[in-house]
Amino acid sequence: MSGGGPMAIGWLLTAAGLLILVSVLFSRPSERVGFPAVLLFLGLGLLAGAWLPEPFSDFDLAFRIGTVGLVLILFDGGLNTPWRTARDHLAPAAVLATLGVVGTAGLVAVAGRLLGLSWIEALLVGAIVSSTDAAAVFSALRGSNVQLRRRVGATLELESGLNDPMAVILTLTLTAAMLQPEAFSVPVFLLEIAIQLVVGLGAGLAIGFSGQQLLKRIRVPAAGLYPALTLALALLAFGVPTLFMGSGFLAVYVAALVLGNQRMPYRAGILRVHDALAWLGQITMFLVLGLLAVPSLLAAASFDGLVLALVLGLVARPLVVALCLSPFGYSAPETGFVSWTGLRGAVPILLASVPVMSGVEGGAALFHLVFFVVVVNALIPGATVRWAVAWFGVERAGQVRPPPVLEITATENLPVRVISFLISPAALVAGSKAGDLPLPAGADILLLVRDGTVLPVGEQTVLQPGDHAHLMIRPEQARAVELLFGLREED
């Protein structure tokens, strides 16, 4: 934004504050009617672009803001992904995140060529829309208020967290090829992909494990500094591998996955802060990208965009997912749901700004074509997630688990843990007296929460379905306690 001084800053902060405020206030009503929140944020940005000054439509600034927002979203997603779930479903998600991205890009490119785009333009559009969006997927799955079968939900979340590097590599390479066709080389292209993935993976693991050791050993004077420390690790996880030709997005997700599956001081506080940062990043990213769109150019791209969106959602994605998941024994309903819920969001729009910033001829038209594809994709699969869960029958048995009613946090690494359970009718402890439970030595039920009332626990206290039980245990006792109480509330 050109110019400076108090007035310029005042306009910027006023506009930003109003847009974020309206986004937050309208997010809940939009969820109730099944309208995707990500599309709400994009729409508000598009509307705001009609009355905000021209300097707000800055592709370079939007790209930088979008990159930071995506880093925050991926880091939060990695922190909340259990390793035992990720480990079991990493292989199919990795295939979708690599071969699936390439296959989707190729099929969309064929459709683009039939619509009159040149091959290089069609391939570029295919590459840009080829990856699912972490922000859209995390928001849709966690906001749908349903429990998906574990491997279905894990596959979708892992894929969306891992597939951005391949889309970024394809987009940057094809953009460079459009500017200098004679410089493009397939061997160099494949080598760059390998370097990006290897360096990104290595950096993510290194920063994740280093962050673990740092959190174990460092003592900070205030609890609020722990989230600041993990935020620093997120920024380093993106920045360091990027400086060495690696994939920063892959490194961020991997580093968070490593950190989130180890004991952390002030864990609940850290997760809460990163959840807030991810939402702020998501809102800001979609709003800023919405500011870049011009309604007249969107209208001009509407026919081609609609065709490409339908090909992407009804042909390319289902075919590629079916081929990628077939070796892993996924059922037809599971494959169908994964195909249908391949949501696109801010990442394709962010990548579509690269040709514009690079000065590619026709870059603005390609940007608006991708923008329209994302809007259609958010409306059709994005607004039907709950319906699709019922249609494909991929909901996990059991009631939806509410968030814990009590949180206990500590700024030190203690030798014990406090974990919470929502007692289901099928749990072994349901209907039993606390004194009769075969708890491991040293494990103890601290309290029960029943119908919003805190109950002290004595030997004659009977545990009932619907109770929230909070136990103090040693870490090695977690598995034995889970056999009695079932899944922890954070699971």
Order of helices and strands: HHHHHHHHHHHHHHHHHHEEEEH
| Annotation field: number of helices | 19
Largest sheet: 4 strands, antiparallel
Q: What's the total count of β strands?
A: 4
Q: If strands are numbered along the chain, what order do they take across the biggest sheet?
A: 1-4-2-3
**What share of the residues lie within helices?**
55-70%
Rg, Å, rounded: 24 Å
Low-confidence stretches: none
Beta-strand fraction estimate: under 5%
**Alpha carbon gap, first and last residue:** 44 Å
Oligomeric state? single chain
Mean pLDDT: 83
Global shape: globular
Alpha-beta classification:
mainly alpha
Explain the layout of strands and helices:
Blueprint: H1 5-32, H2 37-48, H3 59-79, H4 83-114, H5 119-128, H6 134-143, H7 150-162, H8 164-179, H9 186-217, H10 225-243, H11 248-260, H12 267-291, H13 295-300, H14 302-325, H15 332-340, H16 346-358, H17 363-379, H18 385-392, E1 417-422, E2 444-450, E3 453-455, E4 468-473, H19 478-485
Antiparallel strand pairs: 1-4, 2-3, 2-4
Helix pairs in contact: 1-2, 1-12, 2-12, 3-10, 3-11, 3-12, 3-16, 4-5, 4-7, 4-8, 4-14, 5-8, 6-7, 8-9, 8-16, 9-10, 9-11, 10-11, 10-12, 14-15, 14-17, 15-18, 16-17
Description:
The protein is mainly alpha-helical and about 500 residues long. It contains 19 helices and 4 strands. A 4-stranded antiparallel beta sheet has the order 1-4-2-3, with no helix packed on it. Strand 2 and strand 3 (about 455) form a beta hairpin. The protein is globular.
